[in-house]
Amino acid sequence: MTDLSAAPSWRRDLSIDQQLALTTAATRLAAEFDGIYGTETIERFLHSSYDQFAPASIPHFLPLLAERFARQRLQALARVEGHHRDGKPVVLFLCTHNAGRSQIALGFFTHLAGDAAIAWSGGSEPGTEINTAAVAAMAERGIDISGEYPKPWTDEVVRAADVVITMGCGDACPTFPGTRYQNWDVDDPAGLDVAAVRPIRDDLERRVRALLEDLHVPAR
């Protein structure tokens, strides 16, 4: 792995287990992207993804979060660079904290589209955890978003998207020429209880279903 001597202090203090976990993650990613990206690119994306979450996240989960985020970013980059062409539409849901609205929308989109489309989410100022009321409200619909996590958007992820849905991030939301943007005026569920989140959830479901229809993706 990359020499950590010039890294931030929290990375120089990585435990043996964390270093081993990152090494294992790099090995898995290298196998997944074999023939597309080399070791240097894999490690650069993995380490920069790790940097996005530390030191705010629970250390035990950092390597896993970094691997998941690095995988998403590498998948996006492969699409941008033309290494991956499957014809599936890609949608990116963005809000401020990537803890409520964008996660609910992502949950519905993934559940309804299945393998027919791809969706990602991100935030301009990512929070530290998913909104628990949003998790509970989605569980009422049989959709589990508890395994998701707030994360930032990155250039390659935005550039890979065919449609970018923004919700409340304003001028902080990224813009790239040639990308289709829609702004959804949806209330923020932050600080609300489950009863108050339900109308927001239902509004987002309607919007996601309309989006799928517009993309000619049949809802399951």
Concise summary:
By secondary structure, the chain is of the alpha/beta class. The chain is 47% helix and 10% strand. It is built from eight helices and four strands; from the N terminus they run ααααβαβααββα.
Task: Describe the model.
One of its GO terms (biological process) is response to arsenic-containing substance. It comes from Krasilnikovia cinnamomea. This protein has 220 residues and is an alpha/beta fold. It has two domains: 72 residues, Helicase, Ruva Protein, domain 3; 125 residues, Response regulator (Rossmann fold), CATH 3.40.50.2300. Helices cover 47% and strands 10% of the residues. The protein is built from eight helices and four strands. It has a four-stranded parallel beta sheet. Helix 3 packs across helix 4. The radius of gyration is 18 Å and the shape is globular. It starts with 8 loop residues before the first helix and ends in a 6-residue tail after the last helix. The N terminus is likely disordered.
Question: Which structural class do you get from the secondary structure elements?
Answer: alpha/beta
In CATH, the topology of the largest domain is named: Rossmann fold
Number of structurally distinct domains: 2
Shape: globular
Classified by CATH, the class of the largest domain is Alpha Beta
Which sequence of strands runs across the widest sheet?
2-1-3-4
Provide a count of the helices. 8
| Distance between the first and last residues' Cα | 43 Å
Please write the string of helix (H) and strand (E) elements.
Answer: HHHHEHEHHEEH
The whole-number mean of residue pLDDT values reads 90
| Number of DSSP-assigned strands | 4
Describe the largest sheet: 4 strands, parallel
Q: Specify Rg, calculated over alpha carbons.
A: 18 Å
CATH architectural arrangement of the largest domain:
3-Layer(aba) Sandwich
Question: Please, what is the CATH homologous superfamily of the largest domain?
Answer: Response regulator
